[in-house]
Structures are given as C-alpha cells and as structure tokens.
Specification:
By secondary structure, the chain is mainly alpha-helical. It is about 75% helix and about 0% strand.
C-alpha cells in the first residue's frame, strides 16, 4: 500500500514537471519558471544524497545541472520519462565535479611529517644515471643507440635514423627489443 502511494506520488510529480516543461517550451514563461523552481528542489535532494561528504558543493552543482537542463531542453524527448533525462544530466555534472576534485587533489598533495621533501639528492640522480649507463653498455648498438637517441635525448624516430644511418623501422624495433632486454636485465638484478 505504501509503495503504491509512493509510486503514485512520483508519477504525479513527474507528470507535473513534464507538463510545466512542455508548456514552458511552448512559450509559457511562467510555467517554465515554475518548472525550474520545482526542479531545483528535486535536484537539491538528489544531489544531497550523493554528496553527503561534500555538502558545500551541492548548491553549485544544482546550478550547473539547472543550466545544463536549460541549455539542453531542446534535446528532451517528450515520449521519454523526464526524470531519467534530468537524472542523467545531474549524474554527468556529479561525475564532472568528482573528476575535477580528483585532479585538484592529485595536484595538491599535502606535505606531511612523513614526507621528507629533501630526501632525494642530486647524487642519487647521478647514481641512477650511472646504473642506467652500465645497463645500456651491455646492449648491442642496434638496441642501445635507438634507446639513447629517442628515449634519453628525445629525438624523433626519423632524427635517430638519420643520425645512426639505421632505417626508421630498425630504430623502432631496436627501441622495443632494447627496452625488453633492459627489463629482463633489471629483473635479473633484482
């Protein structure tokens, strides 16, 4: 009984919002304003449930979703449920927000006591380069030279081919085989 009442309430809201949108798209400005106002409340509730940990983001996301609904209203198919269309837009906005936050959080790593910013020195980099040079010296020229020129010096395949006298395809094969050989050597060392 309660489920039926809930479903009926949902259908009634859906029909009301759909009617307001359709009237608004037909030029009835007051109906469109009412649609946006009522939709705002529904979007806020929808997003609050999904942003419990980020309550400060809800209002901005509601506005972004409303703007997207407004800008994309011409794409709405009246034969389809309005709620599904609006929910898809809101979910895209939510995903965009979470992606932006993830990127920003990755760019702003906190400096904790456990992180020693100055732990690595230039001598460690020089030691790593010496180790790499030793490993590269063990490779034949047809593998070592393509790696040195393309991967370490940053030359293009064509430039490396011109410099070494090898063909472009030989450079590509040399890089591939050389990197595989280096990986095998490293695995053998560790």
């Amino acid at each position: 009984m309660q489920r039926t009442t809930r479903e009926e309430g949902f259908r009634t809201k859906e029909a009301r919002l759909k009617s307001l949108l359709m009237r608004g798209m037909a030029g009835e400005n007051a109906a469109y304003q009412q649609f946006l106002s009522e939709l705002c409340a529904h979007l806020r509730a929808f997003l609050r449930l999904r942003l419990i940990q980020l309550p400060d983001e809800v209002e901005d996301l509601v506005q972004e979703a409303l703007l997207a609904v407004h800008n994309q209203r011409h794409t709405y198919d009246p034969d389809q449920p309005l709620s599904a269309w609006v929910q898809a837009i809101a979910r895209y906005k939510l995903v965009d927000l979470l992606r932006r936050r993830a990127v920003n959080e990755n760019l702003n790593d906190p400096l904790d006591d456990e992180i020693d910013l100055f732990a690595h020195s230039d001598t460690e980099a020089a030691e790593a380069r010496r180790d790499l040079d030793k490993l590269l010296a063990e490779l034949p020229d047809q593998q070592r030279l393509p790696i040195v020129h393309t991967k370490l010096e940053g030359l293009s395949v064509k430039e490396a081919a011109d410099l070494t006298g090898m063909s472009e395809s030989a450079i590509k094969v040399g890089v591939h085989r050389g990197l595989k050989a280096l990986a095998d050597k490293i695995r053998g060392i560790l």
